[in-house]
Specification:
This protein is mostly beta strands. It is built from ten helices and 41 strands.
Length: 777
């Protein structure tokens, strides 16, 4: 029909006389017009060029009477076409007031152009734009929030049921009029992911065929919200979200609210709170959040009474700041070094490399199937230039003359951006010198499955002088890719950080030094410690390192040799000012913290970081190579001016603690030394970090000089991160107090709380009181 009708029109046959009627063909011109397209070229125009039926059938699949290019995919499907090669070309004819648009693929026009009046084009364009923006906004709202869209009208949310009241009249007189109702709404989110790795080579038992179907991983999130009522006065609320790890986030409550002249004003069962005046000496601000129990408010004439009996599942704390700065008292354990942030590009105990900083490309494999955008297939080797090119070094497990590839890891890597915000990492050349560049990530590697890899170029350094020849580490160009077992190219890389499961252990619970990926552990630095503050005043910085938990604490190896000297933090006497690096001495202070010193070697006061010079400060490897010593550790120790090192045996004053570096699972009992710190730190941008997460919503009370501040007007708070942002600037003499409650992550506070308050409002006098009892079980 689509091919015959245009032909009849071109022949000018308004009637079909003398032709027998064929089923499916029109009988008259009026019938033909019913089947004509909406936009037809004028009759006096030239006929289109002849095209074969196959070409016309193909064009019929693309041409649509719409302003936008139709989607290539119809119906719900898990894959989405990101790049559509087609485009819409639009031409405006101001003389005739019409718009012509057509679909093109490159320079080829797909079908004939449509011509419509300008008014109709504007109407269709507005409708199409509104539909596109509405769909995009709805999709972002659903995917971004992870929760169902809540309509403005609460009665219209989810499934609502209004039931006739079955309650007797006597019960209605107590609970209030109105029938029961139930409103349920929520969302269910199911995510499936899988990966299949296979090879056409026989890698398992003979005759055992591996399945090509991937092993699936399913994650399910359930969010249910239930709102119901027995009457107009009694309500039941339930909140259950599987994503909440804190029990306090899942709430259940039964609430009763009486009339103004009723004896029982309110009754809360379940999650509740308590605010009692005059009890700030017991619970800081007098506000208690995170309670689970019963609270009742009664009124008898001018007397109001509040009673509470509950279990407190949150903990209360107070943070105080004076004059725009905060005094911090912090204790760090020797095992609390920063993890997953600082990395060498190569093992410093091997040949020295002069790395071209501009050639560094850092890659990260998230270890998950989420966020697989702008990624490349990579193959990370312990040493791309040696690990799997020599059969004697890599092994020949298959006895086929090909090297074994067990010293490499495959993955999907994403190229990280260099620089500060919004960069992902920085290159530091002032830690151990320009020949030992250090990578510092802005965000620490948190997952044990993440892989970090790098590619770069360097010159070999001999006797302190770089050679002319350039050595490439990893793939720098597409031509440097390695063809994988499935025929697809993978970029060769140098592995900086291996997944935890690849670092096997020995019989003693330590990392196995003979494991294939054991050499990678030498690349991560374990001598940085994060301080609880930034913009630190160097004059207020105090540090003491003690061994064990003796009382009084042991802070010296022997008289006159404190642990800060043994750890290489005190090498110069800066009492009268720092002069040069040739004058050694000790002043029992960390170098760079003397009042007149400008030397900043071990403390980054700007970012709040403590750096210890030994690669393993609490167990330096200073012996010979045959006994497990390391050349780089010995060179660093030679530059330090100290009387002793932590290389002693168990029980000795200079006892080494290698467990915090060598054990696969470090326990709290493995620590041996503690770092006690005291300093004053300023806050940038009026931001206060409480040092706690999972702050209970509504428990925050912020005061300046005793005057309370209003949330969202005078300050903002992030309950998840525990961060308070002041909107107005503090004065030099202002006293800032922040009272809050938080939910412990692994264990609840386990306190019983009994409270009572009363207030009498008479005509000529008023008085009140409060009682609060806490049982810290």
């Amino acid at each position: 029909m689509h091919l015959i009708l245009p032909l009849l029109v071109l022949l000018g046959l308004p009637q079909l006389p003398g032709l027998p009627h064929i089923p499916g063909l029109p009988k008259s011109w009026s019938d033909i017009k019913k089947h004509l397209p909406k936009h037809v070229a004028p009759l006096d125009s030239l006929p289109p060029a002849w095209k074969p039926a196959s070409r016309l059938a193909l064009e019929d699949q693309f041409v649509k009477s719409s302003l936008t290019v139709p989607s290539l995919v119809r119906g719900p499907i898990a894959f989405r076409v990101s790049d559509d090669p087609r485009r819409v070309r639009i031409r405006l004819d101001p003389d005739s007031g019409s718009v012509t648009y057509a679909t093109e693929l490159g320079t080829i026009e797909l079908g004939e152009a449509a011509r419509v009046p300008l008014v109709q084009f504007s109407h269709d364009l507005g409708r199409s734009t509104f539909e596109r923006l509405w769909l995009e906004r709805s999709r972002q709202s659903i995917q971004g929030s992870g929760a169902p869209i809540q309509p403005t009208n609460p009665a219209a949310r989810g499934l609502a049921f209004e039931l006739p009241s079955p309650l007797p009249k006597r019960v209605q007189s107590l609970l209030g009029p109105g029938g029961p109702s139930l409103n349920v709404y929520g969302s269910e989110n199911i995510r499936l992911s899988g990966q299949s790795q296979w090879s056409n080579q026989q890698v398992g038992q003979l005759g055992l065929k591996r399945s090509l179907f991937p092993s699936l991983d399913m994650q399910q999130d359930l969010d249910i919200r239930l709102e119901g009522r027995l009457s107009d006065r009694t309500a039941v609320n339930l909140l259950q979200n599987s994503a909440n790890q804190i029990p306090l986030e899942n709430r259940i409550a039964i609430n009763y609210k009486g009339d103004e002249d009723d004896l029982v004003q309110s009754l809360d069962l379940g999650n509740t709170n308590l605010s009692l005046p005059g009890t700030q000496y017991v619970s800081y601000s007098g506000k208690n959040e995170g309670l689970f129990g019963m609270k009742a408010t009664t009124r008898l004439g001018p007397l109001d009474v509040t009673m509470l009996a509950s279990k407190q599942e949150g903990r209360s704390e107070r943070s105080s700041y004076q004059g725009g700065s905060s005094r911090q008292d912090q204790t760090l354990l020797d095992k609390d070094y920063v993890k997953g942030v600082y990395f060498f590009l190569y093992d410093p105990n091997q040949d020295v490399q002069d790395i071209d900083e501009g050639s560094i490309r850092l890659y990260l494999d998230e270890g998950t199937f989420v966020n697989q955008i702008n990624t490349v297939r990579g193959r990370a080797f312990v040493d791309p230039n040696q690990a799997c090119t020599d059969p004697l070094a890599c092994g020949d497990a298959n006895n086929d003359g090909k090297p074994d590839t067990t010293r490499s890891l495959r993955g999907t890597f994403r190229l990280l951006e260099l620089g500060g915000d919004p960069g992902k990492y920085q290159i530091l050349s002032d830690i151990y010198g320009p020949f030992f560049k250090v990578i510092r990530l802005r965000t620490a590697l948190s997952s044990d499955k993440q892989k970090l890899a790098v590619t770069y170029r360097y010159h070999r350094v001999v006797n302190g002088v770089p050679e002319d020849s350039i050595i490439v580490v990893g793939g720098q160009l597409p031509a440097d890719t390695l063809i994988d077992v499935d025929g697809v190219g993978a970029v060769t890389m140098k592995l900086l950080r291996a997944p935890f499961e690849e670092l096997t252990g020995d019989a003693n619970g330590n990392f196995d030094p003979t494991a294939p990926f054991a050499p990678v552990r030498e690349l991560e630095l374990r001598n940085f410690y994060q301080l609880a503050g930034q913009l630190i005043d160097a004059k207020t910085f105090q540090i003491a390192i003690r061994k064990g938990d003796d009382s009084p604490p042991r802070t010296t190896v022997r008289p006159g040799v404190p642990y800060i000297q043994v750890l290489g933090l005190d090498n110069f006497d800066e009492t009268s000012g720092f002069v040069d690096f040739t004058r050694h001495g000790h002043d029992d202070r960390v170098d760079g913290t003397a009042p007149s010193s400008t030397f900043r070697a071990f403390v980054d006061f700007q970012n709040g970081t403590l750096f210890l010079p030994d690669p393993r400060p609490f167990a330096p490897r200073l012996g010979s190579d045959a006994s497990g010593g390391k050349r780089f550790d010995r060179e660093i120790s030679r530059l330090l001016f100290r009387s002793d090192s932590l290389v002693g045996g168990p029980g000795e004053a200079n006892e080494a603690n290698p467990a915090i570096y060598d054990k696969r699972t470090v326990l709290s009992t493995d620590r041996e030394y503690s770092i006690d710190l005291r300093f004053t730190a300023q806050r940038a941008g009026n931001e206060v970090t409480l040092g706690r997460t999972n702050i209970i919503e509504g428990s925050d009370v912020v005061t300046i000089n005793g005057q309370p501040l209003a949330r969202d007007r005078d300050y903002r708070i992030d309950y998840d991160l525990g961060k308070v942002t002041l909107i107005r600037q503090l004065g030099g003499a202002d006293q800032l107090n922040i009272d809050y409650s938080y939910a412990p992550l692994f264990q609840q506070a386990g306190r019983t709380l009994l409270g009572n308050s009363f207030r009498y409002e008479g005509r000529d006098r008023s008085f009140g009181g409060a009682f609060l009892y806490e049982s810290r079980g």
